[in-house]
Design brief:
OB fold (Dihydrolipoamide Acetyltransferase, E2P); alpha+beta; Rossmann fold; 2 domains; 9 helices; 26% helix; single chain
Length: 352
């Protein structure tokens, strides 16, 4: 039994058209730029955004199927949501916050408090049962929100940027705790995140959304090895070009030519590591091993310790990574003209 979702909905100017499946015990991370449709997808799965088309099936039971006239209200779905800002009631204790979800579903007060106490113990907060949210750290609030959701025994758990509100140090420890807590949940889990570390640490597979559609899916290793969108390329810190390859030359949409080695023919992606891009003030001397030389303008400089990322504008837009010593030797400033060179063998080409 799985989550099977075909989500079609119009959200403002965004046409959401997403198909995905999640198996029991699996964590699917959903990545994508702002405005890609990630939050809208979660809203559709939990019933806050009715579908215009498609369906949502959970363990074979339809939760939303406009074609069949089926729509299960949010409070009646076996779906739990941990929101980015946790949405804890400030006037209730941790115990009362966890019990609230059960009480809202009709559980008697005594039974709800008993189960809430059990869940607080499971997330390591039994000693904080009487504390209100303002008396808890960000990581502790996140665990209370998770306990409140898990106490209702959902079959589908939705986590909307659950670590985004935490500082870097707290995020590391909370990420580790969250991984342990999710390991004991045999339902389906869907995690929305902007952080690739969350995906590496917590997810079995990733789905990349862009413009309301899934543009890439697979394991995090497979997705990052061959990015198919600029968003993923930026996540992994590489340059991504797209064009049509004929006889060893990739022609970009603007007509620029990129010479590559042993490529497939047809529509392709070409990935170039920033460290493979060399820079010079003047055109380099003819070298058979360097098949690509393009004029460019330095648009920006970003220092990362003893490395510097140089954003280049030109017919072939690239980011180069050079040493701080190389930057000083070249005396580069934004607006300077340079030449970028890349060996054909340093370009990874794969079908689009």
């Amino acid at each position: 039994m799985t989550l099977e979702a075909v989500v079609r909905a119009q959200v403002g100017q965004l046409a959401l058209d997403v198909e995905l499946t999640v198996a029991p015990g699996e964590v699917l991370a959903v990545l994508g730029p702002n405005g890609a449709g990630k939050t809208s997808l979660l809203k559709a799965l939990c019933g806050l955004l009715p579908l215009a088309g498609g369906h949502v099936l959970l363990d074979g039971t339809p939760l939303d199927d406009p074609g069949a006239g089926v729509f299960v209200r949010p409070e009646q779905r076996p779906v739990g949501v941990v929101f980015q800002d946790y949405l804890l009631f400030p006037h209730l204790t941790a115990l009362e916050n966890v019990a609230f979800g059960l009480r809202a579903r009709g559980t008697a007060a005594g039974a709800a408090r008993k189960r809430a106490g059990e869940w607080l113990e499971r997330v390591g907060l039994a000693d904080h049962a009487g504390h209100r949210p303002r008396q808890l750290s960000g990581g502790q609030q996140q665990r209370v929100a998770l306990a409140r959701t898990m106490a209702t025994d959902p079959r589908l758990l939705l986590l909307d940027e659950p670590l985004a509100a935490l500082d870097a140090a707290t995020r590391r420890t909370t990420r580790r705790d969250l991984r342990q807590q999710l390991a004991g949940f045999d339902g389906m889990r869907l995690l929305v995140t902007h952080d690739p570390v969350d995906a590496y640490t917590l997810a079995d597979r990733v789905a990349v959304l862009d413009g309301g559609q899934v543009v890439q899916t697979g394991t995090i290793a497979a997705v990052t090895a061959h990015p198919r969108s600029r968003f993923v390329a930026e996540l992994v810190g590489t340059n991504l070009l797209q064009g049509v390859c004929t006889e060893g030359v990739v022609r970009l949409a603007n007509g620029a030519a990129v010479v590559v080695a042993d490529p497939p023919a047809g529509d392709v992606f070409a990935a170039v590591r920033p460290s493979a891009v060399s820079l010079s003030r003047s055109a380099p001397s003819t070298d058979a091993s360097v098949r690509n030389v393009w004029p460019a303008i330095v648009a920006d400089l970003d220092r990362l310790g003893d490395r510097v990322r140089v954003l280049l504008e030109g017919e072939v837009p690239l980011t180069a990574e050079i040493t701080a010593a190389a930057l000083e030797a070249l005396a580069l400033r934004p607006g300077d003209a340079v030449h970028a060179a890349v060996k054909a063998t340093e370009i990874d080409v794969y079908p689009a």
